[in-house]
Amino acid sequence: MEDILNKAREYEKENESKMEGLRPSFHLTPRVGWMNDPNGFCYYKGQYHMFYQYHPYDNHWGPMHWGHAVSSDLLHWEYLPVVLAPDMEYDKRGCFSGSAIELSDGRHLIMYTGVSETVDENGNKTECQTQCVAVGDGVNYVKYENNPVLTSDDVPEGGSHVDFRDPRLFEGKDGLIYCLVGNRSSDTSGQMLLYKSVDGFKWEFVRIIAQNKNSFGKMWECPDFFLQDGKWVLLTSPQDMEAIPGRYNSGNGTLCLIGNWDGENSDFEIENNQCIDNGIDYYAPQTITLADGRRIMIGWMQNWDTCNNYTPSDLWCGQMSIPREVTVRDGRLYQVPAKEIESLRGDLISVLNMNLNGEYSAEILNGRKLDLTVKVRPSGGKVYDNFEVRFFQKDNNYAFVKYNTHESMVTLSREFAGVRRAIVNKTSCSVDNKGGEIELRIILDKYSAEVFINGGKYAMTIDVYNDQSFDGISFVSDGEALIDIEKYSLEK
């Protein structure tokens, strides 16, 4: 096949200067073109590596490559050349999502889903998904000569040969390398297949460790599996979810399952479930453990149901979330902005113990790149009805996060922020009823808002592509409320 990889490398090198000044300040975007799932998020040779699903030639999804960036702090990223391109028969329709691990000899192993197409004697085309590996040094990677390493022959009886993707590598205490792969079962819903290997190249099927049984959507994509605070955590992104009001949104969602796992001879015993992010734009997160023991999660800050929320003339589409520290407490996944974000902070501006009934704004609080914390509680002995923070605002054009005290529901919306497409523009999340007390921490960065509620017990994310001059912030209370506001500007 033609030299597709070098063609992509030359293209991104020649065109990345066109992106100057257009990117968000501290969220990773594609070097050029289109980005979706994070891939191979890891620490290798003294740097954090983020690979990503990538179509360099346009601002919409296309033949999948793997883009590449490195960082020393998870906030400032340096682009490296694209590492994978669809240039082999087994991946000619795309190099899809996967993960990475360091081998015992110091080489870096990437495992990804290769997609090809088969045609039967009647001319019917069928997509084929297999698992493939490549080995490299952190910059350049060579595909294994005996790819693919997992094929339909390695799928258990009843498992789909078409929906078999997104391998997640992890090390076992026994010294083996394990891999979890998403698959569709005979009942058409998702399941997780476990494989093991001594060297990362020859693999053996172990067992099905978790099955959806049509409880949470259909196909389970993009798994992550890890031990955190004494509990095993399975993250996945189900397709075709049915809504559970206040808990799960319909369509393409995110799912966190928490429980126990005793190793390869046991099933994953699920104790609790929750949505990872109840907002609109969050999908396919991956995690790593830092040297100081913190587990950090980064997700694709978009969603397959909202991909039309861009302008065709834009030079890029897609961005990653900020790094989030995740912990497990009381059977629930908590997530807060990683402490590295504090290195971007400017001076603190505070408004404390303000009694609000109506709307309040002040120019000193405005901005599109900020870290804003708002604590709200009742005033005057009566609980207010609603409290709302409006952001990216000019006149009647704004996005908002609203808390309704009677329903204990937080709503995040861009419906009034100049959206011109009939896509998902508003979601809601049920939160604990604390008698009108709530804490909202909001991270803004030019085109997005990430909202962390009540110390990270809930998270909601949204992309907003309105005019960059719309930088107003206002606070609206329906009834008397006492509020504390703390605001830091954030600069790269």
Could you explain the architecture of this structure?
The structure is a single chain. The chain is mainly β and 492 residues long. It has one helix at residues 4-15, and strands at residues 33-44, 47-55, 65-71, 77-84, 95-102, 108-119, 125-136, 141-143, 164-171, 177-184, 190-197, 203-211, 220-228, 231-238, 255-260, 269-274, 283-289, 295-300, 316-317, 324-329, 332-337, 345-361, 369-378, 386-394, 397-404, 409-416, 426-430, 438-445, 448-453, 458-463, 472-490. Strands 22, 23, 24, 25, 26, 27, 28, 29, 30 and 31 form a 10-stranded antiparallel beta sheet that branches. Strands 4-3-2-1-19 form a 5-stranded mixed beta sheet. It has a 4-stranded antiparallel beta sheet with strand order 5-6-7-8, with no helix packed on it.
